[in-house]
C-alpha cells in the first residue's frame, strides 16, 4: 500500500495525494468498487436514455397530437413502456451503486482499523507511553472515517464522469454550439472544486488534529474522574475541555464558512449552464440547426446533469480531510520499534524456569541510563527480591524479564535461551508479569481470569484464586465468578483488584512469575500468606519480586539491592541487614513509613 507523505499536503500535491489514497482504497476492495461503479454507470446511462425518450415523445407524440388533434396510441404505449423499463433499471442500478459504495467504505474502514490495531499491538510499551490514549482512539476511529469519506460518493462520481463523456458525444453530434456551452461549463466547474479542495486542506488538517486533542482531553478527564472529584478540580477540567471543544468548534466553523463560500457557485453553475444551453438551443432551433426533438432532449439532458455533477464536487471536497486522515493513519502504520520475536520454543517438563540477567543495561530514548551492567540469576524454583530506592531500576528489570522492552546491552535469558529468540506464545506461557497498578476488564470475574486461554476451566480458576488469597471474597460476591466487576474493576477495592490480577497470572500456570510491587494494596499479613503460599505451592514457579515490606523481603531466598541502576549488594535479607548499611537504612525507612501509614489508617477509621 502506498504511503502518503508525512508533511502537510501542499496545494500542488493535494489532488495527487487524494487520488493516490482513493486508488489504494480501490485496491483493497476492487470487487465492491466495481459493483458500485457499474451500477452508477448503468444508472447514468438510463438517465440519459430518459432524455432521449422524452425528446422522442415530444417530437413523435405530443407535437403530432397537437397539430393533428389525434393521439397515436401505439407511440404512447411505446413511450410508456420505455419509461417504465428505464425506471426499473434505474432503481436496480441505484441499489447496486449504493450497496457497492457503502459496503466498500465500511470494508475499507474495517481493514484499516484492523491494521492500526495490529500495529498498536506490535509496537513496544515505550511507543505507547509517548502517545495519549485519546489520540490513539482517534487514529482508529475519526481518522479512519475521514480517510474513507470520499468512498461514499465515489461510484456516483465515476458514473457522472461516464455520463459527461456520453453527453458530450451527444452534444457534439447534435450541434457544435451546444457542445461549446458544455465545454465551457465543465472545466470551470472542475476548477472551482479544485480551488475549494486546496483551500480546505489546511483547515481540514487542523480540525482533524483538534478532534484527536478533544478525544485525548476527554479520555484523560474521564479516566481520572476519581482524582478530579477528590481534588475538587471539576471546574478546571470543565474549562480545559471547553477550551479544546471551542477551538474545534471554531476550526469546523472555518471549514463551514469556506464551504458556504464555494458551494453556492458549485451548485449554481450547472443550473446556469442548463439555462444557457436552453437559450442557445432556442436560437439554434429558430435558425433550423436543431429539431424540436433535439432541443427538448438537450435541455432535459443538461437539467439531469446538474445534480450528478455535484458528486464530483463531493469527492473533491472530501479530499483534504481524506488526505489528512490518511496521513495520520500512515503515521501509526509507519511507526518504528517493532519487537521481533524469535522462532525458538524449547520443550520443558513444566518445572520452574531459570531467569538470567547477563551484563544488562537499559537506556531511555533520550540517552538516560536506567540500569547498567546488571547480572544475577533467579534459579529454578527460587524467589529473588529486588530492593532499592525509587528510580533505582527495579521496575525496568521487571519489564525486561517479561520482555515488555529489550535491553540496550547484554542479554536476558530464560532457561539459557535469550528471550529475544523465543516465540511470543512460548514467552507468554512461560512468564507472567503482575504490575503494581492492576488492570481489570469491564467483564465478569471468570472472563478476567480466563481471558479465553485454552485449558483454563473453573477448577483452575478457583485454584488460582485460592493461591492469590482471593477465593473468599470472590465466593462472597453475589454471582461468584459471573459477577460483573465494572470498568477497571471499580466495584472492587484496590487490594481485591491486585489479588485478581495475581490470580489471572497464576491461572496460566507460568513457570516464571514477576511481581512488580503487585501486592502493595494488600494487608501485610495477607501479602506474606500469599507469597509464602506461592513459594510452597505444588505448581511453584521461580519468582522475581519487587518488594518494599520487610516481611515480604524476608521470604526471598536472595535479595538483590539496587542503587543508581547498579547492583551494589546481594545476599539473604539477614546478611544484607547486618553487612550493608544502605540496605538496612532503606528497609528500616520502608518499615517506618508502613507503620506510620497503618497508624494513620487506624486513627481515621
From TrEMBL:
It is a multi-pass membrane protein. It is found in: Cell inner membrane. GO terms for cellular component: plasma membrane. It comes from Glycomyces buryatensis. This is ABC transporter ATP-binding protein. Residues 355-589 form the ABC transporter domain. Keywords: ATP-binding, Cell inner membrane, Cell membrane, Membrane, Nucleotide-binding, Transmembrane, Transmembrane helix, Transport. Belongs to the ABC transporter superfamily. Siderophore-Fe(3+) uptake transporter (SIUT) (TC 3.A.1.21) family. Pfam families: ABC_membrane (PF00664), ABC_tran (PF00005). Coiled coil: none annotated. The chain crosses the membrane at residues 33-59, 71-92, 151-170, 176-196, 295-317. Residues 34-321 form the ABC transmembrane type-1 domain. One of its GO terms (molecular function) is ATPase-coupled lipid transmembrane transporter activity.
Amino acid at each position: 500500500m502506498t504511503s502518503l507523505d508525512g508533511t502537510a499536503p501542499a496545494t500542488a500535491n493535494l489532488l495527487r495525494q487524494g487520488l493516490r489514497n482513493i486508488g489504494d482504497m480501490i485496491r483493497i476492495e476492487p470487487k465492491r468498487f466495481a459493483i458500485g461503479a457499474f451500477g452508477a454507470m448503468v444508472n447514468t446511462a438510463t438517465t440519459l436514455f430518459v432524455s432521449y425518450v422524452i425528446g422522442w415523445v415530444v417530437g413523435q407524440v405530443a407535437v403530432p397530437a397537437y397539430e393533428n388533434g389525434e393521439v397515436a396510441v401505439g407511440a404512447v404505449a411505446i413511450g410508456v413502456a420505455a419509461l417504465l423499463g428505464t425506471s426499473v433499471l434505474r432503481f436496480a442500478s441505484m441499489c447496486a451503486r449504493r450497496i457497492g459504495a457503502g459496503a466498500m467504505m465500511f470494508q475499507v474502514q474495517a481493514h484499516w482499523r484492523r491494521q492500526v490495531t495490529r500495529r498498536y499491538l506490535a509496537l513496544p510499551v515505550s511507543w505507547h507511553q509517548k502517545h495519549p490514549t485519546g489520540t490513539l482512539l482517534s487514529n482508529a476511529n475519526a481518522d479512519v472515517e475521514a480517510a474513507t469519506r470520499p468512498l461514499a460518493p465515489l461510484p456516483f462520481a465515476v458514473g457522472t464522469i461516464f455520463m459527461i463523456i456520453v453527453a458530450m458525444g451527444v452534444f457534439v453530434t447534435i450541434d457544435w454550439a451546444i457542445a461549446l456551452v458544455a465545454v465551457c461549463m465543465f472545466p470551470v466547474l472542475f476548477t472551482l472544486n479544485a480551488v475549494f479542495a486546496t483551500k480546505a486542506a489546511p483547515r481540514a488538517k487542523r480540525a482533524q488534529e483538534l478532534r484527536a486533542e478533544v478525544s485525548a482531553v476527554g479520555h484523560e478527564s474521564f479516566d481520572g474522574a476519581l482524582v478530579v472529584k477528590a481534588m475538587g478540580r471539576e471546574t478546571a477540567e470543565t474549562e480545559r475541555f471547553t477550551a479544546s471543544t471551542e477551538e474545534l468548534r471554531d476550526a469546523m466553523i472555518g471549514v463551514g464558512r469556506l464551504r458556504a463560500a464555494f458551494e453556492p457557485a458549485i451548485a449554481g453553475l450547472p443550473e446556469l449552464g442548463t439555462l444557457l444551453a436552453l437559450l442557445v438551443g432556442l436560437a439554434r432551433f429558430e435558425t433550423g440547426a436543431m429539431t424540436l426533438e433535439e432541443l427538448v432532449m438537450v435541455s432535459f439532458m443538461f437539467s439531469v446533469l446538474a445534480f450528478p455533477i455535484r458528486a464530483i464536487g463531493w469527492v473533491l471536497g472530501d479530499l483534504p480531510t481524506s488526505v489528512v486522515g490518511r496521513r495520520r493513519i500512515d503515521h501509526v502504520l509507519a511507526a518504528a520499534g517493532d519487537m521481533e520475536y524469535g522462532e525458538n520454543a524449547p520443550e520443558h517438563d513444566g518445572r520452574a524456569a531459570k531467569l538470567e540477567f547477563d551484563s544488562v543495561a537499559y537506556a531511555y530514548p533520550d540517552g538516560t541510563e536506567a540500569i547498567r551492567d546488571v547480572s544475577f540469576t533467579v534459579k529454578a524454583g527460587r524467589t529473588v527480591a529486588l530492593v532499592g530506592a525509587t528510580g533505582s531500576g527495579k521496575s525496568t528489570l521487571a519489564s525486561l524479564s517479561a520482555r515488555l522492552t529489550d535491553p540496550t546491552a547484554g542479554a536476558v535469558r530464560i532457561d539459557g535461551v535469550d528471550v529475544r529468540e523465543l516465540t511470543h506464545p512460548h514467552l507468554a506461557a512461560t512468564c507472567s508479569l503482575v504490575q503494581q497498578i492492576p488492570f481489570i476488564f469491564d467483564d465478569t470475574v471468570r472472563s478476567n481470569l480466563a481471558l479465553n486461554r485454552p485449558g483454563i476451566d473453573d477448577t483452575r480458576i478457583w485454584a488460582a484464586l485460592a493461591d492469590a488469597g482471593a477465593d473468599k471474597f470472590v465466593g462472597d460476591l453475589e454471582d461468584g465468578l459471573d459477577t460483573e466487576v465494572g470498568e477497571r474493576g471499580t466495584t472492587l477495592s484496590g487490594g481485591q483488584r491486585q489479588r485478581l490480577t495475581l490470580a489471572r497470572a497464576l491461572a496460566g500456570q507460568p513457570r516464571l512469575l514477576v511481581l512488580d510491587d503487585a501486592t502493595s494494596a494488600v494487608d501485610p499479613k495477607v501479602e506474606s500468606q500469599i507469597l509464602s503460599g506461592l513459594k510452597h505451592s505444588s505448581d511453584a514457579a521461580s519468582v522475581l519480586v519487587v518488594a518494599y515490606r520487610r516481611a515480604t523481603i524476608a521470604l526471598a531466598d536472595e535479595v538483590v539491592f539496587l542503587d543508581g541502576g547498579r547492583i551494589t549488594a546481594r545476599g539473604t535479607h539477614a546478611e544484607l541487614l547486618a553487612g550493608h548499611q544502605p540496605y538496612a537504612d532503606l528497609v528500616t525507612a520502608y518499615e517506618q513509613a508502613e507503620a506510620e501509614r497503618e497508624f494513620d489508617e487506624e486513627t481515621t477509621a
